[in-house]
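User: I'm putting together notes for a lab meeting next week and I want to include a structural view of one of the chains we've been expressing. I don't have a solved structure, so I'd like a prediction I can at least talk through. The sequence is below, exactly as it appears in our construct file.
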Amino acid sequence: MLQEKILTIIRAVRVRYAILIVLLLVTVYLIVIYPWMTNWGSTAAEQQMALPGDELILESSGKSTKAITINAPSDVVWQWLVQIGQGRAGYYTYTWLENLVGADIHNVNEIHPEWQTLHVGDIWGVVPPDYLGNLGKDAGFPVLRIEPGRAIVLEIMGAHVIEPIDENTSRLLVRGESGSGNPILTMIVDPIVFTMERRMLLGLKARAEGRPDAPAAFMAIAQLGWVAAGITVLVLFLIQRRRWIWLLLPVLAALPALLMSGDLQAALAAFLAVGIIALGFLIFGRSWWGPLLVIGSVVLLTLLLAPEASVAIGLAFVLLLLAALVVVITGRSKTEGRAAQRLATPTR
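Assistant: Thanks for the context. Below is the predicted structure for the 348-residue chain, given as structure tokens.
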């Protein structure tokens, strides 16, 4: 009964309708979201303010200024900022995304004295030095300029500048390039950079203020949703009779995160992403293309817009699984009611 209802819904979302939805979302992104994320959190005055590293931005490119208010002294903010990097404090962002490829990044929640020094030429690393041989040796963002206690200017990642407001409040500004006009950068690279950069600012703010990234109750419920979704996908594969062998696809996708980073959350994210795609085609065939386009767009928008995307996705899993459970229970109740009615009706 449940599968028939889901199949009806899936087939209703035809590819041509899904493409129209995606085009609508792309339009909203270009007109509304892209300008918003270019100068996220900053004021007009901050966007015009001269900052360290401005001389490195090409005249042909526009400037992007992101900013966040942190309720902590500037020296405390600096201690959290200066220790960023792979093999150090992490990036305070989504390790479950970073570790999908085995980056082995792990966020810390303490200030480490041994990571409080940084010099020109040092690198904010993104993967271990021995990553895939020696490919990770120089992989990262070199420090081009540093003003201890105030600013770090990085190649590609731009300038990270602390502006004190008062003795207990600071502004952290990130200045970089924008408006290159390159459609690949606008549609692919810029959203990825913004997603991770904004999460880094929010993560640094939470740590400097001494609080968690999200309310503990929400985080616990969301984690339950991730685990329940993983179990559900596993069970759906196992009941596919002779086609359960396709379970190897999500398992293989999860291995880099598990073996190279030891990150269970990243491994679960990879398992779910590949598993849901594969299951959709196994169960619904070509009818899955339309819903897949819509689901993919919604997930990308969630990553882009949600302050804590992992919690938002986990809560969505909980709601979907609860909705499915309600449908199953309702369907069984109706079936049992019809059966009881037939038994109660006298036959002639």
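A couple of points you could mention at the meeting. The chain has a mean pLDDT of 90. The radius of gyration is 24 Å.

User: Perfect, that's what I needed.
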